[in-house]
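Action item from last meeting closed. Structure (304 res):
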């Protein structure tokens, strides 16, 4: 038995479905002689007749009927593969694991992910909120597809891109004595109850350095690790804090007031990917959408 090729099977299937060489040629966009030749070649390959002409009609042989059942099963699988490919291309299927630091993961990303999921109901999305070092570990181990962090570290297992540069803001309740000022200077914090984000990041060490440089005696009664917790303590009346602008914005509807802080302290968000894994089109579109949306928090554009 000779090898069978896909084009021969396509011609055979078209004739079986249309019951006509003429209609099969129209279905395949080829000439009638080409369809006839493909059928003859397939009969030569399988070594039995597929059709008989009875009263000028093309009638499948029992062997042809049996072969058609197998061909249909195969083409059903091919059609399913084609459909799956179209769904992947159009983002109607697939999955993406996202890892994020709390500053983005607790408030900002859920809104973006929700809108993204509504547009792509067949896509499965997962969000893991970790500290920046853990986010980097997940991405480096290829256990997440895209990560958001405040670490711009160099690592052979990671590809790191700057997502946004913003500035830390000073946050307080609306009834605080400093709430009426257009901006808060470090010297304004002298003797003020201060909720410190005891973050090991270099960004937050600037605050302690400025306190020393300007001889500011802040009353640090409460230390906490996350900016969101700082905001909660501020709203509870424990004092004022200095946090990233996206976290501050999330609490604005609960009465948190944010003001520009001087000297300005940059806060940089990064997006990271696994170095040894190609990015999916889904991840590319998701990050592109975030890059467009998050620009409103840029140190150049964000009004406090």
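Sequence:
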């Amino acid at each position: 038995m000779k090898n069978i090729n896909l084009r021969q099977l396509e011609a055979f299937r078209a004739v079986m479905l249309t019951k006509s060489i003429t209609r099969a040629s129209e279905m395949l966009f080829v000439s009638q002689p080409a369809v006839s030749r493909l059928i003859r070649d397939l009969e030569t390959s399988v070594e039995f007749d597929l059709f008989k002409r009875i009263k000028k009609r093309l009638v499948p042989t029992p062997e042809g009927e049996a072969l058609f059942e197998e061909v249909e099963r195969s083409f059903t699988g091919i059609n399913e593969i084609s459909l799956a490919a179209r769904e992947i291309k159009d983002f109607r299927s697939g999955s993406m694991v996202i890892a994020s630091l709390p500053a983005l993961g607790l408030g900002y990303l859920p809104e973006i992910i929700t809108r993204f999921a509504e547009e792509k109901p067949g896509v499965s999305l997962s969000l893991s909120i970790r500290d920046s070092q853990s986010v980097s570990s997940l991405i480096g181990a290829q256990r997440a597809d895209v990560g958001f962090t405040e670490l711009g570290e160099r690592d052979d297992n990671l590809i790191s891109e700057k997502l946004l540069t913003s500035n830390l803001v000073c946050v307080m309740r609306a009834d605080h004595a400093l709430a009426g000022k257009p901006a808060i200077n470090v010297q304004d914090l002298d003797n003020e109850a201060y909720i410190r984000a005891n973050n090991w990041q270099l960004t937050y060490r600037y605050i302690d350095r400025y306190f020393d440089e300007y001889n500011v005696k802040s009353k640090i009664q409460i230390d906490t690790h996350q900016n969101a917790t700082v905001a909660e303590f501020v709203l509870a009346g424990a004092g004022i804090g200095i946090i990233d602008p996206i976290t501050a914005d999330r609490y604005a509807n609960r009465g948190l007031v944010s003001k520009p802080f001087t000297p300005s302290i940059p806060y940089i968000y990064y997006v990271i990917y696994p170095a040894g894994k190609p990015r999916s089109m889904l991840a590319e579109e998701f990050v592109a959408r975030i890059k467009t949306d998050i620009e409103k928090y840029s140190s150049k554009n964000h009004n406090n």
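Note appended to the action item: The first strand starts at residue 51 and ends at 54.
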